[in-house]
Structure formats: structure tokens, C-alpha cells
Write a structure and sequence with these properties.
It is built from eight helices and 13 strands. It has 305 residues and is of the alpha+beta class. The protein has a single domain, classed as Sulfite Oxidase, Chain A, domain 2. The strands form two sheets. Strands 1, 4, 5, 8, 9, 10, 12 and 13 form an eight-stranded mixed β-sheet that branches. It has a five-stranded mixed β-sheet with strand order 3-2-11-6-7. It binds ligand MTE. Ligand MTE binds next to loops. The site of ligand MTE has 16 residues, from loops.
């Protein structure tokens, strides 16, 4: 794995643009934290979990999006999500937890460490990106609310506010958008709740103010603009699985050997690479096999896709 998990990536080694953004991050990130009231929150730290792959540009990450609450076109989210009100923001935490409640986002995150995590991101549609997220390990948030014995899954829900989300006027999915993880997946250190990217507060089209990021799973598991976290005993219903269980499994781990019924998952096109960019082979668990394969020991990954 030499080279893939180095923790000595320096932004000046990446691209001049990224280095420029990193300097801005120190300014904008600090200002953003102050403005959002995250007093006492540490400024982002670099993580050994980051990849050393070159990040996709800010422009590509923020203009080529999937966020069906704002429309199904790739540019609909950047065109329509500007009107979303993301402050104040409340997250309901319920189910099998010691401290249920309606948390102001700043209170839920107060004092927790925000890290830089440069992750590969692989959409089920076979496009990919490398995204420099800023986020908090979900495990830190779950420890804060106190997971009770008997909890085996974590369910998430996105905001449903039709007056600001034009896409929800159409029954494309059974709104609100829902996702879920097994508890051990949720507690894995790679699983983060992202509050920003490129050191800036999360753009609305990418899931402001807080979204899940699970880098070894297809992108649709990484649910945006979360307003509810529920600890459950049973596997929760999830939007794409409810829409088409044959095509979208609960696990949805990136797996080049298990094709989508309508297309191959063996390779991917990285966004921003231009029309004639070469497809790359897709990696098992999106390249995070060493970190996460043991979560699925003994499981048939074709049956549990
Ligand atoms: N979350 C919500 N609420 N609504 C969505 O439509 N799309 C998913 C996921 N999270 C989606 C969502 C899909 S299919 C992908 S690939 C990623 O968000 C895209 O994230 P990005 O637009 O930030 O790249």
C-alpha cells in the first residue's frame, strides 16, 4: 500500500490551485467556523486516512452533482440549491440513544475535531471524483449522543422542504431521502459527517450544512443535508433500495465484480478529465479494501450487494 496512505501530503505538492485554496482555507475556514458559532472547534487537521490522489477541482465538484431534491440534471443542484436556508439547522437524534433530542447543529458538533479528508468518491453511475472534505468522524457524534445496547443500525433523513426544493414536487423518490448504515460501518473511522470541502463551508448543492460521506460505498449512500439520525435495531428502509431493490442494495459497497443490472461497474470516468479522458479500473471497496474488508468477513458480497 506504499504511497496510497501517506499522511505527509502537502498541498503544495498537489496543484498550485489547491495550494491557493489551502491558504484561503485558513482564512475562510476560520471565518466560517466563527460565523457558524462552532466556538472551540479545532481547525481542520490532515489525516492519515487521506488519499494522495490529486483532488478534482472545486468547480467540477460543485457543478456536477446529484441532489434530486433540486432536480435530476447534473447542473440542477448548482442552479437551484442557492435558495436553500441552512441556518438555523436542527438535527433530530432519536431511537436507541441515551441523549435524544432536537440539537442545534452547532451544539451537536461543539468541540468535536474537524479533519481534512481527501477521499475518492465513486457514484453508482460510474463517474468518480477525488474530494477534499472537511468533516467530523460520525463515531464522535454517536458517542456524544450515547448509543444504547440493542442498536444495530443508523438511519439518516434529508430535509424535506418543497418550497425550497423544487425537485421534491415530483415523485422521483419517496421523499424525504433516506439512507442507513450498519452500526459498525457508521463507527468506522473513515465514515465522516462532512461540513465543508476545500476548506470552505459545504456548498448547498453538495449537501449543506452537513452530509454523510462513506468513501467505500457508492455515492448515493452519502446522504446530504441531514436533519435526522435514528439508532435502530432493524435495517432501516433506504430511498434507492425502496425505489428499486434489484438495482440498489442496502450495502452498496463499491465492487468492480458486481455489475449494476444495466451497466458495468468494472471501470469509471473521473469527472473534470475532459471528453476523451481514459476510464480507470474501479477498485474493490473504492480502494479502501485494507481498511474495511474485515467488516464483511464471511458475507457473500454478490448476494449482499
Ligand atoms: N442526498 C440527497 N438527499 N439527495 C440526493 O439526490 N444523491 C446521492 C448522494 N446524496 C443524493 C444525496 C448521489 S446519487 C450521489 S452520487 C452523491 O450524493 C453526490 O454527491 P455530490 O453531488 O456532492 O458529488
Amino acid at each position: 500500500m506504499a504511497g496510497r496512505w501517506t499522511n505527509d501530503l502537502d498541498w503544495k505538492d498537489v496543484t498550485p490551485r489547491a495550494a491557493l485554496l489551502n491558504r484561503r482555507q485558513i482564512l475562510a475556514g476560520g471565518a466560517a467556523l466563527a460565523a457558524s458559532g462552532f466556538a472551540g472547534q479545532a481547525v481542520a487537521q490532515t489525516s492519515p486516512y487521506s488519499t494522495d490522489a490529486e483532488p478534482t477541482s472545486f468547480e467540477d465538484i460543485t457543478s456536477y452533482c446529484n441532489y434530486y431534491e433540486f432536480g435530476t440534471g447534473k447542473s440542477d443542484p448548482s442552479d437551484n440549491a442557492g435558495q436553500l436556508t441552512t441556518s438555523p439547522w436542527t438535527v433530530k437524534v432519536d431511537g436507541l440513544v441515551d441523549n435524544p433530542g432536537d440539537y442545534a447543529l452547532a451544539d451537536l458538533l461543539d468541540g468535536l475535531t474537524v479533519e481534512d479528508r481527501i477521499y475518492r468518491f465513486r457514484c453508482v453511475e460510474a463517474w468518480s471524483a477525488v474530494i477534499p472534505w472537511n468533516g467530523i468522524e460520525l463515531a464522535d457524534i454517536l458517542e456524544r449522543v450515547g448509543v444504547q445496547d440493542g442498536a444495530k443500525y443508523v438511519a439518516f433523513e434529508t430535509l424535506l422542504r418543497p418550497e425550497e426544493m423544487p425537485g421534491t414536487r415530483f415523485p422521483v423518490l419517496d421523499w424525504p431521502y433516506r439512507e442507513g448504515l450498519r452500526l459498525d460501518e457508521a463507527m468506522h473511522p473513515l465514515t465522516i459527517m462532512a461540513t465543508g470541502l476545500y476548506g470552505m463551508p459545504m456548498p448547498n448543492q453538495n449537501g449543506a450544512p452537513i452530509r454523510l460521506v462513506v468513501p467505500w460505498k457508492y455515492g448515493f449512500k452519502s446522504i446530504k443535508s441531514i436533519v435526522r439520525i435514528t439508532l435502530t435495531e432493524d435495517e432501516p428502509p433506504t430511498s434507492w433500495n425502496m425505489a428499486n431493490a434489484r438495482e440498489y442494495g442496502f450495502y452498496s459497497n463499491v465492487n468492480p465484480e458486481v455489475d449494476h443490472p444495466r451497466w458495468s461497474q468494472a471501470s469509471e470516468r473521473q469527472i473534470g478529465g475532459g471528453l476523451f479522458s481514459q476510464r480507470k479500473p474501479t477498485l474493490m471497496f473504492n480502494g479502501y479494501e485494507d481498511q474495511v474488508a474485515s467488516l464483511y468477513d464471511g458475507m457473500d458480497l454478490t448476494a449482499n450487494f
